[in-house]
Design a protein that fits this description.
This protein has seven helices and 13 strands. Helix 1 crosses helix 2, helix 3 packs antiparallel against helix 4 and helix 4 packs across helix 6. The chain starts with a helix and ends in an 18-residue tail after the last helix. It has a six-stranded antiparallel beta barrel with strand order 1-2-3-6-5-4. A six-stranded antiparallel β-barrel has the order 8-9-10-13-12-11. The chain is an alpha+beta fold. The protein has three domains: 110 residues, no CATH class; 94 residues, Pnp Oxidase, Chain A (Roll), CATH 2.30.110.10; 145 residues, Thrombin, subunit H. Strand 1 and strand 2 form a beta hairpin.
Length: 368
């Protein structure tokens, strides 16, 4: 009887030891796989070790999911951002590591099917899409898609003082340019079949483009927003990233990314203009300095949307913007630390917080 009990104890102990041994082996293999995937993703050994600690801190059931799951990666980034904020923003190595995490998060986003594949013909263009029409010898004119059916496109007839009211569009050869949100730029050739009224709008009926060329694939993820800001015209001697303490021209930031922003201002803007835009992001002043690459002028409202390509940003500023783009920053009450706080708040309510930019220039062909 005693011998039987001893045998049972030995067998049970052996099974327990075998189970723990297998678990430790599986865990060891799991971390080996984790480091291998981290290396493939471009992280250094030291950074992978930091990621491992973040995965443990975030209690991820499968740590390797950090390299393919958007949700798991975001959980780790939030922990990293929280730690950096508690330490006063983090040192340079922390910002470098955070920047790599954001680049990896951006890579996951950019590889999604919608961004990666795009569209293949003009029949897939959505109604309301803003376009630019190039007419040789006449210039570039803003327009939009009014109707898109199988046989043809209907676009709004450009209204511009550069052309007489009697100008005839019928029979003209066109090049049509447009930028598809979260995708890329496109161009195709077309010709005007007729001038018509469509949905109460003076319009042009144009042919579809059978050869749609995809160009200028988006390099960043943009966040749609609508926040008050100040705009400053930059000269060659003015610091690009210094926070201004005096108010500039009132404007609105309509989208932001780590590569630039779109800014709504009064008046007709100018391509190639050097500007600085300053606004509050998560209770912190942020400056984006850069060059206006293209613009949309809204003649009825006398306003311009300036599409601005940013200069290289300080790493901490870039990380802060990407944190907002990907929703990594905690929500806080925002205040404008400027002298016109009360005035700005009232203007935002009425929607009048834009001032006319002190330049006047039609959009140039280079802006495309």
């Amino acid at each position: 009887m005693l011998a039987t009990i001893l045998v049972i104890i030995i067998v049970v102990s052996g099974v327990i030891i075998l189970i723990f041994s297998q678990q430790n082996k599986d865990k060891k293999n799991s971390w080996i796989q984790f480091f291998a995937k981290g290396k493939d993703a471009g992280f250094s050994f030291q950074e992978i070790e930091l990621l491992r600690r973040l995965a443990v801190k975030s209690a991820l059931p499968d740590p390797t999911a950090l390299f393919w799951s958007q949700n798991q990666l975001e959980m780790c980034i939030r922990n990293m951002v929280r730690t950096a904020r508690l330490s006063g923003g983090g040192d340079q190595s922390t910002q470098d590591f955070l920047s790599k995490l954001y680049d990896y998060r951006k890579k996951i986003e950019m590889e999604k099917p919608k961004i990666k594949t795009g569209i293949t013909n003009s029949r897939q263009i959505e109604e309301g899409q803003i376009i630019r029409i190039l007419v040789n010898g006449q210039g570039v004119f803003p327009s939009n898609i009014v109707k898109n059916i199988g046989q043809y496109l209907t676009v709004s007839r450009p209204s511009t003082p550069k052309l007489p009211a009697s100008f005839s569009w019928t029979g003209l050869k066109l090049s049509v340019y447009f930028w598809r949100d979260d995708d890329a730029g496109y161009v195709f050739d077309s010709d005007v079949q007729d001038e018509v009224f469509s949905r109460g709008t003076a319009s042009l009926k144009i042919s579809h483009g059978e050869n749609l060329i995809r160009t200028q694939k988006r390099r960043s993820i943009r966040l749609k927003t609508h926040r008050p800001a100040f705009l400053y015209i930059l000269d060659s001697n003015q610091p690009s990233h210094t926070v201004e303490m005096n108010p500039g021209l009132k404007c609105f930031v309509e989208d932001i990314s780590d590569c630039g922003c779109a800014v709504l201002v009064g008046g007709r803007g100018a391509a190639s203009l050097r500007i600085k835009v300053q606004f509050i992001l998560n209770n912190r002043p942020v400056c984006i300095s850069g060059t206006v690459r293209s613009l949309d002028y809204y003649e009825d409202d006398n306003k311009s949307l300036l599409h601005t390509e940013a200069d290289p940003m300080p790493l901490e500023t870039r990380n802060h913007i990407l944190g907002e783009v990907f929703g990594m920053l905690p929500e806080e009450d925002e205040e404008l630390p400027f002298k016109v706080l009360d005035e700005e708040a009232s203007d935002e309510t009425t929607g009048e917080a834009v001032e006319e930019i002190p330049v006047a220039s039609a959009i140039s062909d280079e802006a495309l």
